[in-house]
Amino acid sequence: MWKMDNAGVQLFEAIRSNDKEIFKELGVSVNYNIKSVIQLEKLLVRFNSETDNSVHYVIVAAVGYYYGQTLIRNFKNAVWVIGKGTCIEDIFVEIDIENEIINVYPFRRVIKFLENQEYSMTAIYYTMKAMNRTKTNISELPKKARINYGGMLISAERLPEIREK
Asked: How many angstroms separate the CA atoms of 65 and 119, rounded?
């Protein structure tokens, strides 16, 4: 969609240092919980329809930051991974769930969500919460159930296989 190289890191840092003001302006409380992410998804849907499917990249970046920060605050072993000169789409959150590293790209997730609302930010959040509790939570899902996992729609019977990689 858009590459910003070093400007991506600068935009990320600007959002991080002004998050309360940005989200107050958008009408979203800055408590970094999943209910706020749901609010942001609804806001994105509205903006997307009002702007003929071209939400401004700063809003996409702000929502991506909020989503990533929500992951960090709700998973105890989660950190932002930012390389110098990184474009914003390549900034990710690394989450250690039971010694398994999962990388979530919140900015890419927002872009995917705008392209297709089935790629919900909340779906991956709830999937990882289930993974965080016990492995059986996921493997005990009905075999025909489908989970939005990392931007892919995967049948529940494949999830234990993915966890092993």
From this structure: 17
CA separation for the pair 68, 14 (Å, rounded):
15
Pull the structure tokens for residue 9: 């890191």
- Domain extents in the chain: 6-164
For 43-86, how does the pLDDT look when each residue is reduced to its tens digit (9 = 90+)? Answer: 888 887 787 766 677 888 899 999 999 999 988 888 999 876 66
Q: Which long-range contacts (CB under 8 A, 24 or more apart) does 53-61 make?
A: 53/114, 55/114, 57/1, 57/2, 58/11, 59/26, 60/1, 60/107, 60/110, 60/111, 60/114, 61/8, 61/11, 61/12, 61/15, 61/88, 61/107
Question: Going by C-beta distance under 8 Å and a sequence separation of 6 or more, which residues neighbour residue 16?
Answer: 65
pTM attached to this predicted model: 0.72
From 113, 131, 121, select the one nearest 66 (Cα to Cα). 121
Mean pLDDT, the chain, whole residue set: 76
